[in-house]
Structure formats: structure tokens, C-alpha cells
Design a protein that fits this description.
CATH architecture of the largest domain: 3-Layer(aba) Sandwich
Oligomer: single chain
Bound molecules: FE2/S2 (inorganic) cluster
Number of helices: 21
CATH class of the largest domain: Alpha Beta
Structural class: alpha/beta
Distance between the termini: 24 Å
Shape: globular
Number of strands: 14
CATH topology of the largest domain: Rossmann fold
């Protein structure tokens, strides 16, 4: 029994003096667990995304041992279990295709096992939302622990950020300003320690979101993976989850509407990834918080970016940690009246209490709110006849002169079509064109690839041009940048107007007024629509289920049948 008198769910397995209790305990004892561990103490599941195919999470077996120390110290019984690990850098066709699958693995692994509380070990991009989503559908006491970012990359005195440096240097190679040999030589300089991408890409953004939501210990998101304090916070996380079980501090008490509002504003303040929009929308759906795409614009677009980190700025996560990390940012938001201070967090205190004393040690990295790095630069949500259900753009990563632009469309029907033609010198395109990519949304790719930041044509690059307006139903790596309109909904493969764009059509982008418009008469669009045919469904397997059941990006790209939760009631016993 817990201190509140609530029977722990693990007691339904281990707390029985009968044949079934024998079976549950006896098989566990083959690992050497003594009998008194089954005396009713909280059983803590450590949900591990370790995999050597997920290099960002390859240190997680060691990290789990530090969590276990804390669980033992607090009187709990830690049991580590693996779930599907999604490595952004290796997994084809895109890790996003499997986010919902991994979330189902997490949800059923938690619910089906004798677990009273959960620690989620998360790092690489999709490992964070998949674990948070799956755990939310169970709603046990849960605490997040990120694996931490890599140390800063450095090459010949130049800072090399994960992803961002690749996009920059590959464009230099294509423009003839960098040799392929030198490009290859930078590989080992960019990723030189364990940890996840050390730009403010999706992994660092999502770790920061988990902290801003109140779901991880304060100050934990930015600690480098190799810093001893990463192990310390893992141990403290292990101690705390045992207390959370005793307090019955379940996820839904923390993941409230106020918490999501804090996360949206924090995402703007850190210059976070556009992927956060999709992941937080899906997470809100799981926990029953009514979050709309327009909330991102209403709550976040006027919030200033105060963190000067790549891809929007110069610095890297190591610098962010030394400057004070997420607590320093949240304190700036608190001072500006932009934080719901009363939101509860995993340590049992409010987020306002947690950050009240936070210090900012470097105002070049974390600016004061009244002297922002980039004013009013949260996610902007665009609408218009090209995106009736919405599209997003990250103004902090865009070129200011392109935020209002009108140009002729150059249309690519798939990412393969784009790759086949973009280097063709005969392609009719210049820097005033609007590059349009179709069929890369959730259903179209399928899985919604991170290809929205299409590389520019070489003949434009040679003029020294580094940005053009690009529009697609795809996503973009959180490490990427540019004037890139993403997540156009409905997507082309679902019959959205994006499918109807043709070469030469004029498109006008007006970010200040939040519109993206295809300047084609309705009658002509109707004619094109009549000629449109739906792409064939994948024949079988996961891809088939995915295309049939995935919702649009504007709804978080979760499966329609996964929205909500089923709780953590103990399932039936088949023994
Ligand atoms: Fe894993 Fe970037 S590839 S976080």
C-alpha cells in the first residue's frame, strides 16, 4: 500500500500469496532479486530507448544505472525495460513514420507490466515525443530524463553545430566554395561525444519542452551528456519518481493547459524547432488538453526569441547550459508576465517556484527579455487557399526580406522529382521563384519527411543567394533554417490545394498578415481538382495502417484511434 493508502498496481502481480503470485515472483527471481523486494515497495519502470543504432541514445544503459541508484536509495524497486528506439540519423524512410508505433510500444509495455511509476529515458528527436505520448495514455506517475546534448562541434576554429553545419557546408560544396575532401574531414569534428544534437534542433527543443512542461527536474535539459551532473540528475530523478508514486503525482496533474501554454512560449523564447508543434499537439491529444494549431500563433508568435543558438543564432547547447539553461529562460518569461507560474512540476513545486532564483550567467547566449535576440519570433501559423487547415513558419530562422514575397511557383511532385531536377542548369528558376514540394506530408511520404528545407539550385547559390521561399507539406529538421513554409494542411496526398499548384502559378506569402495564397481562380482550381487522383495506398504492413489512420499535421499527425488514453488499470490475468 502507498502512503496515501492506494494499493500499488504492482501488488496485483507481486502481492499475492497464491499460485499466480508464485509465478510472477518466481520468474523475476531468476535475476537474483531477493524475496523482500516483493514486499509492496514501488516498482519503477525505466523505459529505455538505448540502441547502438540510435547513436544519440547509445549511452543510456549507463544512464539507467544512475537512475537505479536513486530508485534504490528511495526505497523503490527499479526494473529497466527496452522500447523501440528511433534513431533520426539512421532510420529510413524517416523516424517520424514510427513515432506512433513506438508510442504504442511504450503505452502497452507500461500498462501490461507490474509498474507503479515510470522514468522515461529520451534523447534523439522522436524518442522524446513517442515516450511522452505513450506514457500519457497510461497516466501513471512519470518523470522525463533526457540524455543530454553532445559537446560543441569544432573544426579549425569554427563552431560546428549538428545538422546546421551540414546544411551550411553542403551548400558551400555545391557552390564550389568547399572541397568534398574538406567536407568529409569535418565529420569527426562535428559529433565528438555521446549525446544528442547540440544545436537547438528537435532533440534539444523537445528536452527543453519536457522541462518547460514541468515533466523533468528543473535545470536538467541542457546538461551535456558527458557532464558528471547528467549522472547526478539521473540519480535524483530515480529518487524523485519513488516519491511521486507515494504522492500519486500522475502525468495529467502536470500536463495541464497551463503547462502547454508555458511550453509554447518557451519554444518561442528558445527559437525551438517547428517539430515541437506536431509533437506537442499529439501529446495534448493523448492527455486530453484542448490545444489548437492557432494557439501556437496566439500564445507564442509575439514572444521574442532570447536564446542565441544555432540554427537561429550562433551558439550551441553547451553554451546554453553554462548560461543557465531552461530555468534562466523561464525566469525571463516569468519576469515578462509570460509564464503560468502556478503550473505544477514533477518535483512537487510550481514552475514559478522552481525558476524564481534562476540566474543568467551569459547575456550573449540568453538575452534579457527586454533586449531580445530576435523580437516577436515564435511559430507563425499561416492560412489561405493554399493551406485551409494551416501551415507553419519559424520566422526566427527565416530571412526578414522574404517574409513578404510574391513569386512564380516551381513545383516538384515528390522529393525524388526534386533531387532529379534541382541541379539541372536548364531548370527555369531564380531567386524570386517559390519552390513548392508536394506529397511529403504524413500520408504522402508516408511519415512526413524532413525535406521541407529544399537545397537551393546551384545557379542561384553561385550568385551568393542563401535563401528562397520554399513551401511544402513536409517537416524540416530542427537544425535547419530558411524561409520555409511547412506542414501545409491538408497535405497534397490527402487532396489538399497544395496538390493543385502548377509551374508558373503565382504564390504570395505574407507572414505579417499570416497568409499564404495561391493566385489561381477558383474555377481553374476546381478543374484541376477534378483531374486529381489519390496516390495508391501502400500494399501492406505498418505503412498501410499509417496512411489509413494518420491525422494531418495540423492535428499532430497522431493516429485517430490513439487520441486520448486508456489509463493504467491492471489488465486481466491470463495465468
Ligand atoms: Fe539524434 Fe539529432 S540525430 S538528436
Amino acid at each position: 500500500m502507498s502512503e496515501k493508502g492506494r494499493r500499488l498496481r504492482s501488488a496485483a502481480w507481486f502481492g499475492r500469496r497464491d499460485k499466480n503470485g508464485f509465478m510472477y515472483r518466481s520468474w523475476m527471481k531468476n535475476q537474483g532479486h531477493p524475496h523482500d523486494l516483493f514486499d509492496g515497495r514501488p516498482v519503477i519502470g525505466i523505459c529505455n530507448t538505448w540502441s547502438e543504432l540510435t547513436p544519440c541514445n547509445a549511452h543510456f544503459r549507463e544512464l539507467a544505472e544512475w537512475v537505479k541508484r536513486g530508485v534504490w536509495e528511495a526505497g523503490g524497486f527499479p526494473l529497466e525495460f527496452p522500447v523501440m528506439s528511433l534513431g533520426e540519423s539512421q532510420l529510413r524512410p524517416t523516424a517520424m513514420l514510427f513515432r506512433n508505433l513506438a508510442s504504442m510500444d511504450v503505452e502497452e509495455s507500461i500498462r501490461g507490466n507490474p509498474i507503479d511509476g515510470v522514468v522515461l529515458l529520451m534523447g534523439c528527436d522522436k524518442t522524446t515525443p513517442s515516450l511522452m505520448m505513450g506514457a500519457a495514455s497510461c497516466d501513471l506517475p512519470t518523470i522525463g530524463l533526457s540524455g543530454g546534448p553532445m559537446l560543441s562541434g569544432r573544426y579549425r576554429g569554427r563552431e560546428l553545430g549538428s545538422g546546421t553545419g551540414i546544411w551550411q557546408m553542403s551548400e558551400e560544396v555545391r557552390a564550389g566554395r568547399m572541397s568534398m575532401d574538406e567536407f568529409i574531414a569535418t565529420e569527426s569534428c562535428m559529433h565528438r561525444s555521446k549525446g544528442h544534437c547540440m544545436t537547438m534542433g528537435t532533440a534539444s527543443t523537445m528536452a527543453s519542452m519536457v522541462e518547460a512542461l514541468g515533466m523533468s527536474l528543473p535545470g536538467s535539459a541542457a546538461i551535456p551528456a558527458v557532464d558528471a551532473r547528467r549522472n547526478t540528475v539521473a540519480q535524483l530523478t530515480g529518487r524523485r519518481i519513488v516519491e511521486m508514486v507515494k504522492e500519486d503525482l500522475v502525468m495529467s496533474r502536470i500536463l495541464t493547459r497551463a503547462a502547454f501554454e508555458n511550453a509554447i512560449r518557451a519554444n518561442a523564447a528558445i527559437g525551438g524547432s517547428t517539430n515541437a508543434v506536431i509533437h506537442l499537439m499529439a501529446l495534448a491529444g493523448r492527455i486530453g488538453v484542448d490545444l489548437k494549431l492557432d494557439d501556437w500563433d496566439r500564445l507564442g508568435s509575439h514572444v521574442s526569441c532570447i536564446v542565441d543558438l544555432q540554427p537561429s543564432g550562433r551558439h550551441l547547447m553547451e553554451d546554453f547550459f553554462y548560461a543557465g539553461g531552461v530555468p534562466a529562460v523561464l525566469r525571463e518569461l516569468l519576469g515578462a508576465g509570460l509564464l503560468n507560474a502556478e503550473a505544477l512540476t514533477v518535483n512537487g513545486r510550481t514552475i514559478g517556484e522552481n525558476v524564481a532564483e534562476a540566474e543568467n550567467w551569459n547575456r550573449e547566449v540568453i538575452h534579457a527579455y527586454d533586449q531580445p535576440f530576435k523580437p516577436e519570433s515564435g511559430i507563425a501559423v499561416l492560412r489561405g487557399n493554399l493551406a485551409p487547415s494551416g501551415a507553419v513558419i519559424k520566422p526566427s530562422a527565416a530571412s526578414p526580406h522574404l517574409l513578404t514575397h510574391r513569386g512564380r511557383a516551381v513545383v516538384f511532385s515528390s522529393i525524388e522529382d526534386f533531387r532529379a531536377r534541382i541541379n539541372d542548369e536548364a531548370l527555369e528558376i531564380d531567386e524570386t521563384s517559390v519552390m513548392v514540394l508536394q506529397n511529403c506530408g504524413p500520408k504522402g511520404y508516408p511519415g512526413m519527411a524532413e525535406v521541407g528545407n529544399m537545397p537551393l539550385p546551384p545557379k542561384v547559390l553561385r550568385k551568393g543567394i542563401t535563401d528562397m521561399v520554399r513551401i511544402s507539406d513536409a517537416r524540416m529538421s530542427g537544425t535547419a533554417y530558411g524561409t520555409v513554409v511547412l506542414h501545409v494542411s491538408p497535405e497534397a496526398a490527402a487532396g489538399g490545394p497544395l496538390a493543385l499548384v502548377r509551374d508558373g502559378d503565382f504564390i504570395s506569402l505574407d507572414v505579417p498578415n499570416r497568409t499564404v495564397t495561391l493566385e489561381v481562380p477558383d474555377e481553374e482550381l476546381a478543374r484541376r481538382r477534378a483531374a486529381w487522383t489519390q496516390p495508391p495506398l501502400p500494399e501492406r504492413g505498418w505503412a498501410r495502417l499509417y496512411v489509413e489512420r494518420v491525422m494531418q499535421a495540423s492535428d499532430g499527425a497522431d493516429f485517430d484511434f490513439l487520441v486520448g488514453g486508456s489509463g493504467a488499470a491492471v489488465p486481466r490475468d491470463s495465468h
